[in-house]
Every structure is written in structure tokens, then in C-alpha cells.
Amino acid sequence: MAVTAIVVTAATASPSYADDASDAAVLAISRKHCIMCHAANPSHESFQAAPKNIILETIADLRKHAVTIYAQTVQTRAMPLGNQSDMADDERVMLGRWLKEQR
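The structure assignment produced for this chain is given below.
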């Protein structure tokens, strides 16, 4: 008698940020990709202070630097530096949408 095994796997996709341009979603992206360098006390070993004194810890900070963030993260994709934190395209799209709404 042969035994047949059936394996069921669930598809696990990363959450899509492209549809959720909320403050909470943007803050989550900043925490994941930006504040290791752009914080009052950066955790990245290369920085003692935030580069160019740009701190991105709060929604107010993100709004204050919206033009710079858009240029560096969405348009040129220069940030995060070397994409060390693996920012996904859908995160950039959502961030770009939110940043445009701030103008």
C-alpha cells in the first residue's frame, strides 16, 4: 500500500504598501529603512549624528523633509544608501504618493 503525502503551503506575500498611503504606513517605512541613520541617536555604526541633520523619526519630521525625501528616495533611489535595508519598489511608490500629498 502506497502512502501519498499532500503538502499544503500558504502563499505569504509581503504586505503591499502601494495602496496604503497613511501616516502610519509611512512612519513604518521610515522606521524600517531610514531611522537607523536619520535619528537623533542613530543606531547605524557609521553615524554618530543624523546625516545632514535630517531626522526622520516622526510624521512632522517626514513632512518637514518631504521634498528631500522624495528626491533622494523616490526619484533617484539614492536612499537608503546602497539600499542596505532592501526598500521594496511598492514601499517607494507608497512613500512617493504620501510625499506628494504633503505639498
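Interim note for the steering committee: Confidence is low (pLDDT under 50) at residues 4-15. The first helix runs from residue 23 to 33.
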